[in-house]
From TrEMBL, chains A, B:
<dbReference type="InterPro" id="IPR025996">
    <property type="entry name" value="MT1864/Rv1816-like_C"/>
</dbReference>
<keyword id="KW-0238">DNA-binding</keyword>
<dbReference type="InterPro" id="IPR050109">
    <property type="entry name" value="HTH-type_TetR-like_transc_reg"/>
</dbReference>
<feature type="domain" description="HTH tetR-type">
    <location>
        <begin position="11"/>
        <end position="71"/>
    </location>
</feature>
<dbReference type="GO" id="GO:0003700">
    <property type="term" value="F:DNA-binding transcription factor activity"/>
</dbReference>
<dbReference type="InterPro" id="IPR001647">
    <property type="entry name" value="HTH_TetR"/>
</dbReference>
<feature type="DNA-binding region" description="H-T-H motif">
    <location>
        <begin position="34"/>
        <end position="53"/>
    </location>
</feature>
<keyword id="KW-0804">Transcription</keyword>
<protein>
    <submittedName>
        <fullName>Transcriptional regulator, TetR family</fullName>
    </submittedName>
</protein>
<dbReference type="InterPro" id="IPR009057">
    <property type="entry name" value="Homeodomain-like_sf"/>
</dbReference>
<dbReference type="InterPro" id="IPR036271">
    <property type="entry name" value="Tet_transcr_reg_TetR-rel_C_sf"/>
</dbReference>
<dbReference type="Pfam" id="PF13305">
    <property type="entry name" value="TetR_C_33"/>
</dbReference>
<dbReference type="GO" id="GO:0000976">
    <property type="term" value="F:transcription cis-regulatory region binding"/>
</dbReference>
<dbReference type="Pfam" id="PF00440">
    <property type="entry name" value="TetR_N"/>
</dbReference>
<keyword id="KW-0805">Transcription regulation</keyword>
Amino acid sequence: MTETGQRTPSRDVQGALVDAAERVLVRDGTAGLTVRAVATEAGVAPMGVYNRFGNKYGLVAAVLVRGFDALAASVRGDDADAPQDRLAGCGRRYRRFALGNREHYEAMFGTAVPSDARAAASTTELDEHAAAAFGVLVGEVSRAMDAGVLRRDDPAETAQVIWSAVHGAVSLELAGVTQAGDPEASFERLLAALLSGLS
Amino acid sequence: MTETGQRTPSRDVQGALVDAAERVLVRDGTAGLTVRAVATEAGVAPMGVYNRFGNKYGLVAAVLVRGFDALAASVRGDDADAPQDRLAGCGRRYRRFALGNREHYEAMFGTAVPSDARAAASTTELDEHAAAAFGVLVGEVSRAMDAGVLRRDDPAETAQVIWSAVHGAVSLELAGVTQAGDPEASFERLLAALLSGLS
């Protein structure tokens, strides 16, 4: 998600450090995302990273906040879609986000970033951005209920069910451990079965 | 899954080493599952582990083979269940297996064991046991189709859809990142929506 080529002289140092952290994450995975590696990548002294992010987990949190914002933007419904296709479109874009940002996705929802590390990070901001991304899906589910595409129910709980299922398909595809069928076709089957069962 | 108290003098050394590896996995996670740690845990020389398992990944594979066998046994349908409840029962036992064997589950289906490590391990045996566990679900799906509980379709592809969804709910619960609802109630909603959509 680094905006290569869009950096300007006015781009702030904090942003440049998160850019560097994203490059390190993509190259070396979550385990490699250390203050030292990011300082080297950004060409600054480690103290410059500590001063801004506190520690490794503050840096991870800053990367994940960007990830949740990008996911929220990806998942938002497309006004060009017919009401009955809109949620499936959200699901497809969710899958594309995960496949195109594998390291971010795994850090956001996997267990590579242990929960005690999450707790040590500036979780308030991180939790807010994660909740906002989920909120986009809840809004789409509400809209689908209003349009009669999904049956009326608690939108957040219905959104959780959709997210769980979609996350599962994407996770098994990312891990390369699916057992049957082409992953894209299987994802379409999942969307169709789930949305039908919730309609 | 270590069978504490059931060890007998005739229990073979290989089995005792896998027992030790399971204890190390549960205690220290996948990253801590090294030949040295397992040798220490089992009270043998590291060479004794190398001789039997080749390397760390051979040891991981042996643990995962056990995990898949235990999962297969957990997921198998209960003949006491009515046909229309049988698949939901499989799903509930799958969730209980994952929650009760968190470290095994993450090693089996997560990205903690990188795919190149899987490839380095004795994958033939591992793949066979993973496929056999999936095969139990495929058999249950076939049976549900025969009973008219699920609509007729390719049983393996339908099983993949069910597995994906169930895995997703369980993974988010294990990672502690769900956004809405009680995880157990949310799991029940997922099962009901999915099985309805596939019926």
